[in-house]
Design brief:
The structure is a single chain. By secondary structure, this protein is mostly helical. Helices cover 79% and strands 0% of the residues. It is elongated, with a radius of gyration of 30 Å. The chain starts with a helix and ends with a helix.
Amino acid sequence: MKQGNQNINRFFLCITCFVLSISRPALSQISTNDSINFSGLDFQFVEYLITNKEYKDAILILNDSKKIASLNQNQEDSIHYYSAWAYYNSKILDSSIKYFEKISPESPFYVKSKFYQIFEQIYLGRYDDAERLLLNFEPTDSLNQELKLFQQSSAALLKRKLNDFDSLSNKFRYNNFACENEQRDLFKRKDEIVRNKKKSPYVAGLLSAVVPGTGKFYAGLKGQAISGMIPTFLFAIAGAESYYRSGPKSAGFIIAASFFTIFYVGNIWGSTLSVKTFYERTNNEIHNNILLDLHIPLRRIFGN
């Protein structure tokens, strides 16, 4: 069924491209109003393709539309917008950013383009570029001003600049329903960042040397602490029992002592590594949650 829909889409695409090819020589002779009407129909089809995830076909038509003579500013902005949107949905963010950048301030797509462009720069970790865009972008609407402040605060947390976050978040007015919940969640993310402090691998190793498993508990990996503690103690008990019953040369003692040594040393080594592992894992979770919260208001306001 999916293949059949794709074939139908391809058929309509071929028809559209054919009409464009035979009509192009006359485009330079038509009036401005006729050009707008023609282009409007074209953009409707492009939007249909993007909605149906036919991004490559949409980009093909948009690239071909750039060759049309006498495009006005509105048409150029529309081409740039739909190109950026197709690349965005294709996850080709560098190209999406490039086309969002070309949209003029007079375009009805301008505000959306700026917010998504800023989000893309933040998502790619280009915080300086995002900050430059935020400084040069001055929304006139109070709701969009709040959304901009939310993006600035999120970027500050992602950079772990907690003082900057405090300064920005103090200006929250919570007057934009689309990002109000996410604004409040930013304070939870800040608390998570503060709690996720780097711990000493040496302390973790020493604790596990004294009591196996406690080093991982110290690192924050409580489940692994218990799973590492139980077999170590079982082999220690088995080894001690074999020692008292059969002596140090018995097979039971040698096997139990060998396994105890492996688990004991492994537990110490694993505890030293788990400190960094837990910190990085938690840090990545916080990072991804902030990015998710940053994206949700954009989808609420502007759509996918």
